Every structure is written in structure tokens, then in C-alpha cells.
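We emphasize that the prediction below concerns an isolated chain of 149 residues; any contacts that depend on oligomerization or on bound cofactors are therefore not represented. The input was used exactly as deposited, without trimming of termini.
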Amino acid sequence: MQTIWLGGAEWLAVLRIGLGLWWLESWRHKDKKTWFTGGGITWAAGIAAKHRWSAVRTGFDRLVKPRPRLMAYLVAYAELALGLGLVVGFLTPIALVSGAVLNLIYLVLMIHDWAEQGQNLMMMLISAASLFAMSWQSWSLDGAWGLFV
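Result of the prediction step, given as a C-alpha cell string:
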């Protein structure tokens, strides 16, 4: 594949690293003090309570609402782990699938707010392209160690 400046595998690595930086920014911009004391989950609970799909309301009430602190840490550190994993290319296929699932959860929770959906859909598209094009072949620990060949 002929491209300007970098080869195709390197451009895919740039895309993967960019997605990782996007996840790291998602983690960085959270007000950690408010988030970890339940602010983020309280905000999400308000959205889930008014959700048009009863399955979302029920699922949130059963899984997330009883464990606000645990879920706050889980969401925040999942974003951090995804970002780091994608930037350095460690366990990349797992990070790409996990990130797409997390974006799908965000998409379903915020289905009524289309202003927010562009980000989730874009990140899911990048995840899919990076996964199916095996973006961990260049500039990654996975590639250096021969993982997921």
C-alpha cells in the first residue's frame, strides 16, 4: 500500500494511538473529586430514570445504582486503561473491543442526546477499523512481542 510519508500499517497505528489519546482525554477531563464521590453516577442515574427504554432503566437500577462508588471507579479507570493500552499497543484487540462496548453503553444510555452520539459512533468506527485492520502490527508492544499475530 503506497501512502505519503508513512506506510498503511503506520497510518493505522496513528489512528489507534489517536483513539487511545481520545480515551485518555475522556479520563483526564473528569472532575475526579466529584466523579468518585458519586457525581458521575448520580448524573447518569438521572438520565437512566427518564430513559425511553425500560430495559435501560431496569438494568441501571439493578447493576449500577446499588454500587455508585464501584461503578464510578470502574468507568474512570476503564477509560484510563483503554487509553494507555491503545497508545502503547498492549492487548490492543481486547482494548478495541472493550472500548467499542463502552461506547455502545454510552450510546444506549444517551440515545436521546444526539449531540453526544457523534463522538461515540466515531470512536466505535475507529475501534472497528483498527480491529479488523489489525492496527497493532506497527508501533505497539503487541507487535514487538509477537502477540495477536
